Amino acid sequence: MNSKTSISGIPQDSPVFIIDGARTPQLKAGGPPGPFRASDLAVSAARSLLLRMPFDASALDEVIFGCVSSGPDEANIARVISLRLGCGDKVPAFSVQRNCASGMQALDSAAKDIASGRADLILAGGTEAMSHHPVILNNAMVAWLAAWNQARNLPTRIRTLGKLKASHFKPVIAILRGLTDPVVGLSMGQTAEQLAEDFNISRENMDQYAVRSHQRLAEAMENGYLDEVTPLYDKDGNVYTTDNGVRPDSSMEKLARLKPVFDRPVGKVTAGNSAQITDGAACLLLASASAVEKHQLPVLGRIADSQWAGLEPARMGLGPVYAMAPVLMRQQLDSSDIDYWEINEAFAAQVLACMHAWQDQDFCMQSLGLPQAFSSIPEDNLNIDGGGISLGHPVGASGARIVLHLLKVLERKQAKRGMASLCIGGGQGGAMLVERIES
Prior knowledge:
alpha+beta, Peroxisomal Thiolase, Chain A, domain 1, two-stranded antiparallel ribbon
């Protein structure tokens, strides 16, 4: 499992502070398109955040958003978001796309601009309306329509009409196509099955993890631990205040009844132990030291380091291990030095495989080139308020959401240091080390 990492560390003498953040509820996608487009979600989250700031939206130096599939009506969605927020014509904006880590890429891009001195205030985050991912025509139908459009007389049109077949009407579900790696030909779920095989992870272990995710999210909601969530209002006046995918009554018995989705009939990965498909957005305000002083801003934390890594696409779920390891080595830290962890729950098998690989001596030596394995990541310190399995994984937004929530956990627990990480379709991993700033 060869990999390559890119150094993305933030210069220590140019601190990048995270002031605050907000996210929308994550709404399950199912059936017709949801009530919100990707830009609607981002604008709602960002407006709530900016209204708490002592400066006007036009004071921002830049707006950066991650999104995997914004659609034709939202090209360069970051610019659309910026203009709808009232940032004005002079605030530039750009969009980024790194599959599941697009939201984290937005934060990393913003951090580099601030650390280099090119910006002082940046709004960054991610958004995705997965329920709006399109259903598109297949190539045969597109070719037929082109021939029909070029037919100039009745005989030609009759001949062209005779070539129309039932197969031409077979739609292409963009979200399913997008969740399949075009190089190795495996769906993301099939790569999770591969990891379950590699690390001998049982269906029971995966379902146990899924139940725990739902239980933790339900408890966090009950205790008011998700104060970063801002309500959504649709055009009909309906209000959405909470993540609607949580199942507090989830149980091993219920999950055991679900059939494998990606490797029938013998596989272990089911809809119940996989991330939910949802719509959602998350954003954070990043600032330089001079901007903090100028506007007298409270500080939630700072970005201490970050890392991107590449690995075998068929085992893309191990991306967090490849990305987190260089950060800890560079910072001379071990697992015990990290107070809390957020590893995005694309699949229970994927998170469990990362936990196994992290403390496997042979894997760390052979695949990561390390002299020894890391100490284990305590389950009680990982995804303590649930994750993608219970609240969903809107692919463009999750990277920003886990960083924001990790900082909220550090604040709540009065802890110092946290690590956020994701696997990335196509065989990559991203990680971000953050630290709480005591007032």
